[in-house]
Amino acid sequence: xxxxxxxxxxxxxxxxxxxxxxxxxxxxxxxxxxxxxxxxxxxxxxxxxxxxxxxxxxxxxxxxxxxxxxxxxxxxxxxxxxxxxxxxxxxxxxxxxxxxxxxxxxxxxxxxxxxxxxxxxxxxxxxxxxxxxxxxxxxxxxxxxxxxxxxxxxxxxxxxxxxxxxxxxxxxxxxxxxxxxxxxxxxxxxxxxxxxxxxxxxxxxxxxxxxxxxxxxxxxxxxxxxxxxxxxxxxxxxxxxxxxxxxxxxxxxxxxxxxxxxxxxxxxxxxxxxxxxxxxxxxxxxxxxxxxxxxxxxxxxxxxxxxxxxxxxxxxxxxxxxxxxxxxxxxxxxxxxxxxxxxxxxxxxxxxx
Amino acid sequence: xxxxxxxxxxxxxxxxxxxxxxxxxxxxxxxxxxxxxxxxxxxxxxxxxxxxxxxxxxxxxxxxxxxxxxxxxxxxxxxxxxxxxxxxxxxxxxxxxxxxxxxxxxxxxxxxxxxxxxxxxxxxxxxxxxxxxxxxxxxxxxxxxxxxxxxxxxxxxxxxxxxxxxxxxxxxxxxxxxxxxxxxxxxxxxxxxxxxxxxxxxxxxxxxxxxxxxxxxxxxxxxxxxxxxxxxxxxxxxxxxxxxxxxxxxxxxxxxxxxxxxxxxxxxxxxxxxxxxxxxxxxxxxxxxxxxxxxxxxxxxxxxxxxxxxxxxxxxxxxxxxxxxxx
Lengths: 353, 327
Description:
The complex is a heterodimer.
Chain A: H1 31-51, H2 54-71, H3 73-76, H4 84-89, E1 103-108, E2 115-120, H5 140-176, H6 178-193, H7 196-207, H8 211-238, H9 241-248, H10 253-289, H11 300-309, H12 318-346
Antiparallel strand pairs in A: 1-2
Helix pairs in contact in A: 2-5, 2-12, 5-6, 5-8, 5-10, 5-12, 6-8, 7-8, 8-10, 9-10, 10-11, 10-12, 11-12
Chain B: E1 2-15, E2 18-31, E3 35-39, H1 46-53, E4 62-69, E5 72-73, H2 79-85, E6 90-93, H3 107-118, H4 124-137, H5 154-165, E7 172-176, H6 184-201, E8 204-209, H7 212-218, E9 221-226, E10 229-235, H8 236-241, H9 246-253, H10 261-265, E11 305-306, E12 312-313, H11 316-326
Parallel strand pairs in B: 3-8, 3-9, 6-7, 7-8
Antiparallel strand pairs in B: 1-2, 1-4, 4-5, 9-10, 10-12, 11-12
């Protein structure tokens, strides 16, 4: 019986199903052009679905706002405006405009009779300082703008490290199984049950205060959740027939992992990444608030720490405490909303119908 | 000389309840360019043998015996040797090809993948043009190489799997139920394609299915398995037309003859289920379900007795006949 080739029936040029089969004109294009066209199409499909998600769009707009602020921080104020030393050397805050001087409070020590002069440079919001100034006369709005940089950078870099460790360990555990899985899973469990803040405090004080160390501390304390998630998903991917096929092809383990397992885990890793950024930013703020951050760089957490140290919360200086707190909450919320939106697209079962 | 020789193969899966014997002493020879069919119910050990030939079974599985591929015992091979033999010497068309393709890769790339794994010196362009050739060899237009698996129909996917099995010019191809989950028309097309390719390329083919009538069409030789053993083997036509083992008879009768009203009125089939591999009946493992069982069947275990003309059957009835003939 002669065989009829499958696709010889003429396809109408304007097929009703653009996605089910390539239109005839695709034949003339080179494979690379086809690849590019497909990639464009899948990105625009993703974007179309994302746009329909209202929460996700709100999150994205808020994020864009903060990212722009972080990028264009030098436009708003010079970096030197965030240092305390300049203010201290002058014995007068550099940023206090004419007409606003620090009030001098004279206190007398009751035992020695010595008089000390204490400067209080906090100012409530005025036109020149939209958010007022902090205890050393720095504009809080400038601090927020520059703090956005550090907070976002730390959040993103720590997330990348978290994902590398977590996905690596999760895939290794899920793919190799057996003894490797038991060892790696117990390690993951161990990191999951350790109170992270205690571990982070110990690590941060052992490693010393620097920006890189705080990133490292966040990554080391938060990879376990990702590892467990990725392992669970890897376990299901590994049993799929195409992974067995790859083994039958004579593929090495590395080849199978990079070509077959990882691409199929990518959506879940991607959605998890965005949610992890939110957690990393929160972790950075927490550690900085506890005084474990880099003292030389301003982040939202360090602003809060200084405000707390200067008694701003009890002193009613709301303009010093609220902005960094709100900034942290808003950005974390925005990342979470984006993360949920992406998760919903990559996992159709979550989609509300 | 045969290309594949299986000798006294025993395979036991390891489970929490202890080892489960899935294959219990199988001998099988496949000559160059020969098509051998393995038939039997689900769970009789057909696919386990396929997995053992490429050593795809779980690590803990106990395998004893000998599987020699061109004189080399696969069971003794090191990991590196094994990887180079896989696909370039023996390849497999999987059961349920519909899921055997990675959903996030173009099918052409997946065919090229097999070529590149075994010949890393080859550049990607050469591999992809070879992939296009293979796709045309299985009678699909070459531009299908740019499709993702979800854009293909079941039959098309199965053709891609066949193209992939041929990618490294293997000497032997194992087709593990290549036509399950396809409709009858597409089944026939895929079978014809396999037959043509086997003839044109001079492949050796192991064809695994539960459908005896398919095997008659395609195979030179049929081996029927029951509960981990071969119960009957011989030339395809002869085994199908005049089965010498009651199980083969029942298996052949399980498929109705289309247009024959008597079949529709009284469907013939075999009662019961294949035995639990942990509790294989004594004597002939088929005797509890066998319509022609007699007293001896539960006591003495039959081996494969000669049953005329290159045929062997593991039935005590055949043994009795043989004895009568000699005395």
